[in-house]
Amino acid sequence: MSQNLLTETRFDTLNLSPELLQGVEETGFSYCTPIQAESLSLLLNNRDVAGQAQTGTGKTAAFVIAIYHRLLTTPAHPKRHLNQPLALVLAPTRELAIQIHRDAEQIGRHTGLKLGLVYGGTGYEAQRQQLMAGVDILIGTPGRLIDYFKQQLFDLRTLQALVLDEADRMFDLGFIRDIRYLLRRCPPATERLSMLFSATLSLRVTELAYEHMNQPQLITVEAEQVTADRIEQCVYYPAMEEKIPLLLGLMGSLQPSRAIIFVNTKRAGEQVWGYLEGNGWRAGLLSGDVPQRKRQQLLQQFEQGQFPFLVATDVAARGLHIPAVTHVFNYDLPQDAEDYVHRIGRTARAGATGSAISFACEEYAFSLLDIQSYIGSSLTTVPLDPALLVTPEPPKQLERSDRIAPRRNRGGKGSSGGKGSGSGKRGASSKRRRRPSPPTS
Fold first, then answer.
1. Which CATH code for domain 227-396?
2. Sequence spans of domains, the chain
3. Which residues contact 430 (CB under 8 A, 6 or more apart)?
4. CA distance 10 to 168
5. 332, 358 in Cβ contact below 8 A?
6. Helices (H), 161-239
């Protein structure tokens, strides 16, 4: 963690239990970030917190430490049943839920508390068995959690701690009705520790906080304190036909060790991936219709360095902590200014530095004014040097096995087949009449 992003507050001064402090220190934490110092001073004294902080500021560690401290210092209800978790963490996406679970495993490795992870798209029966065996801290996405809740696999009546992470994203994805459904089934706000974190504390987010929390203390860490000063941001203005040659030229000149190239559509992603592979740059391709198991495998391979570049739609912009990403390329400028902040937040994590390079082509250049207004500064314009424009070799074509057909069944039992699944054969119509699987997130 870069020293200029840390406070003088040490974790070993926070009166944490020895087993919790051991996990914190083994994870590599010594000094708190601003959001950690401000929130933990309240949370460790059982005060509810609604915090505003951008990605990469350490908020996950803050609420994970607060959960463990609460559970280790507060006795469970004497009549608590096996199917009653003590803490619930709600996340808007599968990737974020997986990341939270991974961080919680590391920090709480010596506490003896049992973690559970629930999300849609895969592992339906395995997750079901996990809940039946009982968990202390349950982390998951709303849809799959509600599915299991209605099956009475768990209840929330003895809950001691609750976290709502990326609350603004919950609204964006339409999960708020599901969130309210779960919150109404928790103990009263005065009987639990509640935490809400969001990139923006908008009116709708603060209303949610005051409705379901116990007089939460609002904490704000400004965006410019935590991202912009550590990310070198610039913009090129290529024509549409110059984007691939420019991208290949920048790859050759910058030699990024690990980079994410963001696109706005699956079709653009396939094109960029093909040209990278066809020109000697190994890359993975990630879009929203990639099945969850393959998505996790791709991210793991990228993190382990099996390929240095990941071409992705905005499915990868939030909730992922991939260490040592040196460069983010906005091959397509995002049409939502907030997505720009989340994209470039994939680099300069945990106090490191990074570069964000954007292409403002004629199709997406109109987004630039909104982006600059949102972040409160202008991107540095870099003149387009013709020497950077590489004549590309032909693109590699996706193999048939790499082409992901739209998922027809989203219920965790697998997805329906590939290219010929709706061809009119006798089996196809019977599949369409099958009762839909349980909802997922």
1. 3.40.50.300
2. 3-222, 227-396
3. none
4. 30
5. no
6. 167-172, 176-183, 203-212, 223-226
**How many helices and strands (H and E) does the chain possess?**
16, 14
SS3 content of the chain, % helix, strand, coil (to 5): 40, 15, 45
User: Could you tell me which CATH class the domain 3-222 is placed in?
Assistant: alpha beta
Question: What is the Cα 361 distance to its own chain's centre?
Answer: 28
Strands of 57-208 (E only): list them.
87-90, 115-118, 137-140, 161-164, 193-198
Residue 44 tokens read as: 């460790």
- Tokens 């093909």 correspond to what residue? 274
Structure confidence by residue, pLDDT tens digits, 391-418 = 999 999 887 555 444 443 334 333 333 3
**Residue pLDDT, tens place only, 266-285:** 999 999 999 999 999 999 99
User: The tokens of 290 are what?
Assistant: 């990639």
Q: How far apart are CA 360 and CA 403, in angstroms?
A: 28
367's tokens: 């987004």
Residue listed under structure tokens 């739609």? 313
Q: How far is CA 44 from the centre of its chain?
A: 25
Contact yes or no for 67/161 (Cβ under 8 A): yes
The size of the chain, in residues, is 441
Decide: 317 and 343 in contact? Cβ < 8 Å.
yes
Give the single-character DSSP code of 31.
B
Confidence (pLDDT) at 319: 56
Report how far residue 137's alpha carbon sits from residue 111's, in angstroms, rounded to the nearest whole number: 12
Return the amino acid letter for 11. Answer: F
Asked if residue 250 lies in contact with residue 388, where contact means CB atoms within 8 angstroms, the answer is yes
3-222 with 227-396: one CATH topology? Answer: yes
d(CA 387, CA 389): 6
Q: Alpha helix (H) ranges present in 376-441?
A: 426-433
